[in-house]
Amino acid sequence: MLENWNFCIGRGHPLVCIAGLNVLEDVELALETAAHLKAVTSELEIPFIFKASFDKANRSSLESYRGPGLSAGLRILAEVRERIGVPIATDIHEVSQAETVAATAEVIQIPAFLCRQTDLVVSAARAVMKSGGWLHIKKGQFLSPEDCKNIAEKINDAAQNNISILCERGSSFGYNNLIVDMLGIGRMQQLGVPVTIDATHAVQLPGADLQTGGKSTGGRRDGVPIIAKAAVAAGADGVFLEFHPDPDKALCDGPSCLPLGSAGSLLRSLKAIHTAIHP
Fold first, then answer.
1. Burial class of residue 120 in the structure, from the number of CB atoms within 10 Å of its CB (0-12 exposed, 13-18 middle, 19+ buried)
2. What are the residue boundaries of the DAHP synthetase I/KDSA domain, all occurrences included (predicted)?
3. Which of 63, 114, 154, 253 is the most buried (most CB within 10 A)?
């Protein structure tokens, strides 16, 4: 159970929604996005965690927007948490960030490229164990579902508690493309952990945004609902989605995120699918 918020994730529990912005741009946008998503998820009775990154360290180019940074970003996230009344999820990239971020965010997220960094995973596990939170680990694009066993064992050894969630986000397939093996969701669940689907990053085309000459990541926005629905039908315990009021003006990964106004219809469909396979 996520302490202080009274909801769980996994078999026998409602579909959980981790959603928000790819990266923080300013406090007004964060509050607008969080408020809209809270209204939608409250109406649908879907447990909701607001997600936004304070720093996007894995960028295609030095020219790419990364975010406001740790201190300013955590201040924005803390304001969202207090004013909107939602738990927070955000990424870390360095061991030194773990305890500081866990003091503000209920869910610490490990980016896919860093999922095998033992010191990072262990420090994050220990930090969220102390704070009563969860650790959300993206499966690397270069790993099989079974490879996640070692990641889960690191966390269990460090935290000795059921705090980990694995996230499917696609696997590298040739150049500038990802595919999602829906059978992998059940295979990761067999490791004894809940599994989410990151439908947003699964439609990325890494380093293939033609508008910037390859200096940023492209994406196939119209594929997000397809992957999300298929994953929930395959048994995913939660969904990870990114939205923006105007995706074409988003400062990071706009081609992969959805218009904020589409959240209601998509989440309504996802809940219906989840209910249908878990009557």
1. buried
2. 7-272
3. 253
